[in-house]
């Protein structure tokens, strides 16, 4: 990405997120930024499909997207929502050039920063602080996914609904109810009963 | 760990696992190995408890251990079984010196290689190939945890039982049935019904 290209959109929240994680001098940060590419997607547009090799890793500047999988029987389940400031992608399959098991779809019009497999490798070699931040991020993420799995076993649907509402309230204003149900692993009918009970509607 | 100490136990499977992931010369590998410490644990002994700061990361040379969490109501759920050749630990909390949310317990007498927080940091700085292998491992692990979450929503208990039986048959010979139930997020009674149906017992 050239300097001219970088000026076309606002990188503030991206650089803020990086600075939050690592201390690095600004010239390196600009060099790092030049590896990323700006892309836009329309509402409902697919960014990448299962059975495709993922072309890039993503940082969300604006909008919201969902990551989901479809079973052999055709049942769909959402495993992740990425809003502004979230990283999302399928790095193992992008790096090994194998097909992903996941669909990535824009739920809203999206402005994304994307990092190709080639540039991912460059960043890994050139910027150890990025590797460090990456590794720390993944370590935290696996712990939180393990916690999520534990909670699916231990907590009721209502408890998990309330936890998500508490931790990501904005998500509920931008995502349809049946997507929330899919993410929580409950039926839309159960979600509806939970909402009636909580909000007295 | 000194050369003498290293000779006290068999590091073959550990070095095999490392060589499978990266190509690195033997002298570096020995230097890397010297950062690890050999520890044994008795059956049922706790390696680390929730509310404790984890002291080390683990590679299993022999034995089997479980990672689990306990809810406010006292319900226990297993999130991971580590057998021979598995890495296990709570790196985010070990590195940040904060309390873990997980218990780590030996299910069998265990022989472990352990890496302290201090030596983890040394390895990260000295051996970029280790960092690379680590990052790749974590990337694959998050994808597999996301897949596991999806399957908890999409697949029946029976389907998940059969998948685990197929992928880790030895686990079923060394782990009590109620641990398998806890890991699959089903009741011991449901597991019993599933086994009766499948094996006609």
The gyration radius over C-alpha positions of chain A equals 18 Å
Mean pLDDT rating of chain A: 92
Q: Strand sequence of the main sheet of chain A, in spatial order?
A: 1-8-3-6
Order of helices and strands of chain A: HHHEEEEEEHEEHHHHHH
Quaternary state reads: homodimer
Helix-residue proportion of chain A: 40-55%
CATH architecture name of the largest domain in chain A: Sandwich
Contiguous runs where pLDDT drops below 50 for at least 5 residues of chain A: none
Instruction: Please write the CATH class name of the largest domain in chain A.
Output: Mainly Beta
CATH topology of the largest domain in chain A: the name is Jelly Rolls
Find the structural class of chain A using helix and strand composition.
Answer: alpha+beta
TL;DR?
With 201 residues, the first copy, chain A, is an alpha+beta fold. Chain A has ten helices and eight strands. Chain A has two domains: 3-139, Sandwich (Jelly Rolls), CATH 2.60.120; 155-201, no CATH class.
Describe what you observe in this structure:
The structure is a homodimer of 201-residue chains. With 201 residues, the first copy, chain A, is α+β, with helices and mostly antiparallel strands. Chain A folds into 2 domains: 3-139, Jelly Rolls; 155-201, no CATH class. Chain A contains 10 helices and 8 strands. Chain A is globular and about 55 Å long. At the A-B interface, strand 4, strand 5, helix 4 and helix 6 of A face strand 4, strand 5, helix 4 and helix 6 of B.
What descriptive keywords fit this protein?
homodimer, about 200 residues, alpha+beta, Jelly Rolls, 2 domains, four-stranded antiparallel beta sheet
